[in-house]
Amino acid sequence: MIIVKVGGSAGIDYDAVCADLAARWKAGDRFILVHGGSGETNRVAEALGHPPRFVTSPSGYTSRFTDRETLEIFEMVYCGKMNKGIVERLQRLGVNAVGLSGLDGRIFEGRHKDSVRVVENGKTKVLRGDHTGTVERVNTDLLTLLLHAGYLPVLTPPAASYEGVAINVDGDRAAAALAVALRADALLLLSNVPGLLRAYPDESSLIGHIPAPDVEQYLEFAQDRMKKKVLGAAEAVQGGVRRVVFGDARAGEPITAALAGAGTVVS
Prior knowledge:
This protein is α/β, with parallel strands linked by helices. The protein has 7 helices and 13 strands. The strands form 2 sheets. Strands 1, 2, 5, 6, 7, 8, 9, 10, 11, 12 and 13 form an 11-stranded mixed β-sheet that branches.
């Protein structure tokens, strides 16, 4: 069992990811695909007159502030255009994919965080009305049912709160929680860079290997959204996942390349 998370930033080749995934699925490998959609969500939000607001926590992590209107735009893009676009690609390649959000069947479940502490202009403040959280439980029964019936699950945020409210959760950390819950052999975090770079954006500064016990020490090299990927990798290896790979989803055979060790391997 391999969990693949593909990001939503510019430059990602979803056709290449899906073609590689379909070939390996038909050869007998078993996957669950988790995807993002941040770039398209930003574009749609701007077009609808409700531009995205990104905030930075006191610990330096950047995230989308998700009020109710933002959540509805988020669902429209992630659960609609992005999810069904990937499912359609896989269906055309002969893979019987099923697209679901973490809200469906409470596949991803966690605590709703209504307020968030942020740093703006050097001052810490509290913003209320947020719809975010962190995945704390995974409905492995539903996923196992789908896998055993021959379906490839294609999953996306949002998750469900314990009260049944939709909450925006980080896709990389959700994929890590999924990998731990299913005792996956590997977690692949694919994005629009070749891996973790020692001197971003210099791609020649790729860090090829990180010893699993030391992964959090490499947070200093992570820029912007890569911080959440490193955090997800740390949570995955702490939870028993033997190998995490930060891989490149821009061309070629991204899954095959990552499994062969291209990118940054945490093990």
